[in-house]
Design a protein that fits this description.
Helix content of chain A: 25-40%
Oligomer: homodimer
Structural class of chain A: alpha/beta
Largest sheet of chain A: 8 strands, mixed
Distance between the termini of chain A: 6 Å
Number of helices of chain A: 11
Chain lengths: ~325, ~325
């Protein structure tokens, strides 16, 4: 079997390769060639940790396995370790034998960034010029860096609950040669694309903060109770997601579903747009919203890519098992 | 992290160490110090394989993780590999970082054998002399070998649907210096302890095959629809299990529960008997039945023991991860 430790990931896979892997597995999901298993997520009653498994099988990419790990909120303060800790395990679908173990921390950031960018490529107006960021934490920098590759953005605007964190994303804009402007939430009307990546439990983005024709990638809500976008705005948008079952239960759409203002059949998979079986955006005035909930197949896709790249570059660490 | 490949397991852990680990984690479960996560089990639509995860956390033993793998029915014929394939992954409960990867195939056999023997130690009559085996496959040899350590058995009797497999278990009896006799099912009345370890979908063992005072360890039923013991016999016995939730849904008790002849509250955890919070067997005439369904915590317990032993003996293979 092959082992790729966390420290080796950054030299092996970049935002582009991650994007391709995630776009491809979203398409496979919509063709019915790949599916996610039920998610296990447990508060284990130790270190306030959340731990669990996200598994799946992509028959077209022959990726079988899971990401295991979770959130240890005291890691940074107590031990100087990052709080999100995960590992991806790949199995041989022909035999059931373990095939690879891959560090999952950077991969999680890359696959989440890839996800919003897949939605931007397939759902935003091609002439989008202004990218609005809601959130300025570590993950926001990944989202922004990848998004900038998929439209010819001319400007980045940003809002964060803690404004002192905005330099995190300003830095990425500057590196890309783009002007950055801190705005208040109503200032988001200027944006053609908005990426929301916070861990909020109440809506920041309201209907009157968003102009017609905008594409919103709502990436922060992955748990019951979390919310970034007002339910009325979700109801007025054309809603896409990675996986409908997660969107309605733990994603941004949970609130509009609970309010009864949208129904499950109103939500389409972004994979269907990639495959051409859903028309996607139909006008320049339409507000599209991508509810990115995060699925195990994304983790398997980027991890499988890393293993291929490690083998290709001759740096795969092999262990008899 | 530590890696213990499948091939290294046999030299590290034996039936006794496995027994101790399983007895200890059953006790922890009943104290509320250890719990199993929901089981994921998926027919993946490739190679007719069943694949999934059994996870859990034992706070007293600080074992966190999962067993991943499943059943690949074509492995042996197509590839000369065993059909059951599994791997155990242990995580550090303090940090969420992966701690060990351990081959799970032999461990699964050992922990399943340990489970029936824990029930024999705590529920069978101390003067039990005749051990009855129903089933004579690979796993039956493990069950028998371990069981013989926990009572002073003087004879082994056995029945199998395919009688030509009986030499498998006769060999184990002979090695232990005990006479072996092939019997028909009614012949099981001679047994003081019966271990049933088949993958049948209808009952073999009926009420009139079992004498008063017998302990039955029903180990084969771990899926909806499987059955080894007639529901009327289950209803007439005092029923114990590893985990009540599994016993009533996928274990031997599922049929008596469905028939309404027993209820969930009639079933006790064997861990409660170990802890002394349940009285266990109360008379020499009582029929006790252990519904062994197999839980992830057993896998974590034996894998954690293997890692400790590997470190102790200086043979732990370490990988930077």
């Amino acid at each position: 079997m092959v082992i790729v430790p966390e420290g080796a990931i950054a030299d092996l896979i970049d935002a582009d390769a991650s994007f391709e892997a995630v776009e491809s597995v979203f398409a496979a999901m919509s063709r019915g060639d790949a599916y996610n298993f039920p998610v296990i997520r447990e508060a284990i009653g130790h270190e306030d940790a959340l731990y669990g498994f996200k598994g799946g099988f992509d028959k077209s990419g022959m990726a079988l396995g899971l990401k295991a790990g979770g959130y240890w909120p005291n890691n940074l303060e107590k031990r100087g370790l990052i709080n999100h800790q995960s590992t991806v395990f790949l199995f041989d679908p022909d035999t059931g034998k373990v095939k690879a173990m891959v560090g999952g921390n950077l991969l999680t950031a890359l696959r989440t960034a890839a996800s919003s960018s897949v939605s931007i490529k397939h759902l935003s107006r091609p002439d989008s010029k202004v990218l609005g960021m809601i959130g300025a934490g570590h993950q926001a920098t990944f989202q922004l860096r990848t998004a900038l590759k998929h439209r010819n953005f001319e400007k980045v605007i940003g809002w964060n609950y803690h404004p002192d964190m905005l330099p995190n994303i300003e830095k990425i804009a500057t590196e890309a040669g783009l002007p950055f402007e801190a705005v208040d939430l109503p200032g988001m009307v200027e944006a053609d694309v908005i990426i929301s990546i916070t861990s909020a439990f109440s809506a920041s983005l309201m209907a009157d903060h968003v102009s017609p024709g905008t594409h919103i990638a709502a990436m922060g809500t992955d748990t019951k109770g979390k919310q970034e976008v007002d339910a009325a705005l979700v109801a007025s948008a054309t809603v896409f997601t990675d996986e409908v079952a997660q969107s309605i239960s733990i994603g941004e759409a949970q609130h509009a579903i609970a309010a009864g203002t949208i129904k499950e059949s109103d939500i389409a998979e972004v994979g269907a747009v990639i495959n051409g079986t859903h028309k996607g955006r139909t006008s320049d005035d339409e507000i599209t919203l991508f509810d990115g909930t995060g699925v195990g197949l994304q983790d398997l896709a980027v991890a499988a890519k890393v293993v291929d790249l490690a083998v290709e570059k001759g740096v795969a660490q092999r262990v008899d098992f």
